[in-house]
Amino acid sequence: MRAGLRYLAGQPILLTAYLADLTAMAFGMPVAVFPQLSQQAFGDPPGGGPAIGVLSAALSLGALAAGCCAGAFTRVRRHGVMVTAAVCGWGLAVAGAGLARSLWSAAACLLLSGGALTVLSVFRKTLLQAAAVDAMRGRLQGVDTVVGAGGPRLAGILHGTAAATWGTSWSITGGGLLTAAVMVALVLAVPAFWRYSPVGA
């Protein structure tokens, strides 16, 4: 992992890809507060009810739907653009779920966010495989594992703390908007990421 992190420090496009994924996971993954949201906004009883099932399933269904369309992704060569669009789309859809006044509108937003998460996963992993040199791909997988496993855990802490301070809906909406804003800031800081396409594309 140390070798992977040292390599990333000198590779701004790869580093931005990792930061994009960490941003989406940490700021835009509100699963930890779904129980509170389902009770406060959609009338679930204490201990759980149908609303929390709908919210949780919507994310997975959106991811599945996007995965079924993944064959179309092979024709897209602007990988940096797709990662940026996926993170921003994910964040804005999550923000919409936080503002939703009905369970089904919240589920529709989460359906979109699940689809965006699949798009992010496909293009981020493709970018990492294409942009990294052969000798470093294995080492970067160690970093990838930490980001993938640690991001949602960090999200639970951040969303739980924000919900206790500002309320559940605003913790979800604020996290989604912050996700999109940080992604835009990353692209402005590393313009080459936006322009990135694999060699030979």
TrEMBL record:
Q: Provide the alphabetized UniProt keywords.
A: Cell membrane, Membrane, Transmembrane, Transmembrane helix, Transport
Q: Predominant location of this chain?
A: membrane
Give the subcellular location: Cell inner membrane
Q: Which residues form the Major facilitator superfamily (MFS) profile domain?
A: 12-201
Q: Which SUPFAM superfamilies match?
A: MFS general substrate transporter
Checking InterPro entries in the record gives:
MFS_dom (IPR020846), MFS_trans_sf (IPR036259)
Gene3D superfamilies xref list: MFS general substrate transporter like domains
Membrane topology note: Multi-pass membrane protein
Q: Which domain of life is it from?
A: Bacteria
Q: For this UniProt entry, which segments traverse the membrane? A: 12-32, 52-73, 80-97, 103-123, 175-194
UniProt name for this protein: Major facilitator superfamily (MFS) profile domain-containing protein
